Amino acid sequence: MKEVAPLTEGWKLRHRxxxxxxxVPGCVHTDLLTAGLIPDPFLGVNEPDVAWIGQRDWTYLRxxxxxxxxxxxxxxxxxxxxxxxxxxxxTLDGRELGRTRNMHRRYRxxxxxxxxxxxxxxxxxYDEAASVRALTGERPNVYPEPFQYIRKMxxxxxxxxxxxLVTAGIWRPVRLERWSTARLADVRPLVTVHGGTGxxxxxxxxxxxxxxxxxxxxxxxxxxxxxxxxxxxxEGTHAVLTLEVPGxxxxxxxxxxDQPLYDLDIALVEAGPESEERPLDPLDTWHRRIGFxxxxxxxxxxxxxxxxxxxxxxxRVFARGVNWIxxxxxxxxxxxxxxxxxxxxxxxAGVDLVRIWGGGIYEDDAFxxxxxxxxxxxxxxxxxxxxxxxxxQPLRGEVExxxxxxxVRLMPHPxxxxxxxxxxxxxxxxxxxxxxxxxxxxxxxxxYLDLLPRIVAELDPTRPYAAGSPWSGSWDHHPNxxxxxxxxxxxxxxxxDYTEYRDSVPxxxxxxxxxxxxxxxxxxxxxxxxxxxxxSPGMLHHQKAEDGNGKLNRGVARHFVLxxxxxxxxxxxxxxxxxxxxxxxxxxxxxxxxxCAGTVVWQINDCWPVSSWAAIDGDGRLKPLYHELRRVYAxxxxxxxxxxxxxxxxxxALVNQSAEPWQARVTLRRLRADGxxxxxHLVDATVAARSVHRRTVPQDLAPAPRSTKEFLxxxxxxxxxxxFSVTDREFAYPVxxxxxxxxxxxxxxxxxxxxxxTAHTLVRDLLLQxxxxxxxxxxxxxxxxxxxxxxxxxxVTGAAEAGANAVRAALFCVEPA
Length: 817
Prior knowledge:
By secondary structure, this protein is an alpha+beta fold. It is 19% helix and 31% strand. It contains 16 helices and 44 strands. The protein has an eight-stranded parallel β-sheet. A six-stranded antiparallel β-sheet has the order 3-2-4-9-6-7. Strands 1-10-5-8 form a four-stranded antiparallel β-sheet, with no helix packed on it. A hairpin with a 2-residue loop joins strand 6 and strand 7. Helix 6 (395-410) runs parallel beside helix 9 and helix 14 packs parallel to helix 15. The longest helix is centred in the C-terminal third of the chain and has 24 residues, at 567-590. The protein is globular.
């Protein structure tokens, strides 16, 4: 039986003349932080002070004893690295074992009988990139850093939301594996289902020792607790087994059904006459959980253009998605518990699809395990983003090996529903002036349109592949044509008002977003001692987007009077506009299902404390956008949409993504700014499952075009939508008046409180910023609009003995201009 010995202890990091304790998995930055030798780059403006780390070579050291690598009980001892970041030379007792140049691959070295000083020397990523660039020539890039010349997490070189912290280190587990005769090198389960019967075709690759070359081997496979079993003979180094599992329960995305998972166990055994009579102790084993489901990507042409609809188990799905970036710029710090917390938050926001963006990493297995259990579909980018990538050696061989490694590693997960070739590079080739600069040189098109789809077709034909995001499906249409395939909507954030999301109905919006600063408690921790202002030194340093604050301010100014010298008000309004912007896009696009078949918000998470497009900030605090996602991604959505044209009547849209018909009863009211009711109408509608019902608001209920004194409200089943004909700065809001009471405390001394807000006027977009009551305080509710006489209950956890005055100081709402 194979033995596995983790090598987590005893590592040292050479720093100048000293040897520092090193954590493995880890990286240089985290080791230097632990040793107190560098400031925390997440705080203040410290980030540039540690830039030198990425420019230097670094060496990790550990002694391997003779007993650790001896041949006493096994023929072979392998040193296995699950991740080396990035360009490394590995030596043992001065003998070179090998060299690596890819953060995203696994490596294995035969160290049988060898012992002594194990050294892993990392070259500067900048030096490695320069050496590759010298071989391949220059390629254009959206950012000034050389990430396209090295197979490393691109966003570690800095992005428009991330710091430039270029890491090095043993970032994933390392171990010794001792084995004899043979081991399982690769296991590829092709999982399908037809007519209620699950089918698992297991393709096995075996590595043999010299003495094991001629020995007969067999592979045993089982699904569940004896649900299906199969046995096959290893021919050379290959074996294929097929298992059929009748009556399987299907794996569904969340909101569509349950997520049953089945244990799949593989055992490699020595074959012989006696093996038919009794099981032998296995030489090696492999275990994963699988799920039975089908997934297709419908890219059919229709009168609207070219579709892009995920179909799971025959059910067409409107994807309620978010983009995911690495949850920490130092990925070795992301624990399975942290993955599960963040993904549970994601699922609780109504999300059913997570796109792993191409400038990050192939995430740890713990990420995909959690998605399997939570019913979160995973769209996995191959790791190319926002640059022209050379297709020559040494990169081409690395790209192929990396893709093969990760397709095989990830394919058992039922949550994985789509492979995607790249982020924005097909678009960039057309629109970002790359072609003239390239002058015929390679740029990555051969990866996305040839190499990667061939690898997926060979290794994982059970899943669809898309060449890129955005991508129209062919060069017959512009890569970012909203009528064809996937679309990235960035003109609105960059240059326009968020209401202009309503100007088009893309077939699938795979990126769109709006910025806002993080929570106040996050800012206070990240910028200690700073007098906060939009343009204070720390705020500017933690704003990485080009003209980011300018875009934030213009977004606010289109709807409100931009506050001067009132950071608290600016902070509230920028977070409010972010939430409104995303809600505007999603409500509009969901109301046009099935023409639009999905929205993927940029982005759910952050990798450090920063002003960004995230719904959950770098300290894990929920921004108002998070609560809006929970509302607009719910199975049932009620929304009032402007009609087409300046004088057109508003439209009531009822979106039902649940499996049951919705017997909806909606009360429509036209109200004056003071809350007086002008007209009321009751709407009864049956909305079929997975469908949308739209109807025009009656003429007598619609406020006059450009009305500054009347608005429309739709209420039904605790859902509310409001429609104003003008911007907030034009509307005649009353001065908001409401009472605040801390009515009860749940559990003495726990810091849990229940806040009651009673409105005496129209109170629009009331928000309790709970973290102002304490850094760990959380409110269960985001933005809410109250009419006169209405009462709202807010449940707050982690608020240490908050009283009414403290709560009132943490409450914000829209005020008259």
